[in-house]
Each structure stands twice: as structure tokens, then as C-alpha cells.
Write a sequence for this structure.
């Protein structure tokens, strides 16, 4: 698919550290107390194996990069913040439902 082709192009710069996320590089997740309100992020913070995966896996990082671009693109189209959050959430729920996935279960599988 077109998205898979784009992801392949993005993976290399992550591997060579030419693209990075500032919040990951500065250990932002552990410093920002607002994440404590989220069950998902609480699970992530307690799971070192998954946290390592989501901060080093080039495929995951390239998907995250595309998600951020989608969010920015929607903003440039004039979609307000609440609608952008909702659209991104609904998109992920649709992907989960179509693929019979559960993000909590997926994160739990990383536990030792």
C-alpha cells in the first residue's frame, strides 16, 4: 500500500537518528505528570519492555511520525483541536476493531 511505502522511506532516518522525537529524547514521558491520568500511559510507564519498543522500534516510530503528520494536516485544514483528537481516536479504534486488536492486551504482552 502507499502508506507502507511511505513508512519504508521514513524508517531509515529513524535508524540513522536523522529523525527523532524531542519528548522521547528528553525523557518527557516520565517528567510530565499529566500522563498519570491516562490508564494507557500508566500501563506504558510501568512496562519497560514496551516503553523501549515504542521509543526504539523504527516501524513503530515511523507510524507515530505519520500519525503526527495526520494531526498537523487536519489542523492545517481548519479542524479544531477537539475534532482532531476525536478523529485520531476514532481512526485508531476503527483499526483496532477491523484487525480485532486490543491495545491494552498488546501492551500487556510485552510484560516479562
Amino acid at each position: 500500500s502507499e502508506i507502507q511505502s511511505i513508512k519504508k522511506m521514513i524508517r531509515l532516518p529513524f535508524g540513522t537518528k536523522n529523525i527523532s522525537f524531542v519528548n522521547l529524547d528528553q525523557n518527557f514521558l516520565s517528567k510530565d505528570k499529566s500522563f498519570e491520568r491516562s490508564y494507557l500511559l500508566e500501563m506504558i510507564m510501568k512496562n519497560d519492555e514496551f516503553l523501549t519498543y515504542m521509543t526504539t522500534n523504527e516501524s513503530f516510530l515511523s507510524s507515530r511520525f505519520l500519525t503526527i503528520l495526520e494531526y498537523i494536516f487536519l489542523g492545517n485544514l481548519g479542524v479544531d483541536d477537539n475534532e482532531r483528537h476525536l478523529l485520531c481516536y476514532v481512526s485508531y479504534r476503527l483499526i483496532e476493531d477491523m484487525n480485532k486488536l486490543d491495545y491494552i492486551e498488546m501492551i500487556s504482552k510485552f510484560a516479562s
Notes: The longest helix spans residues 58-76.
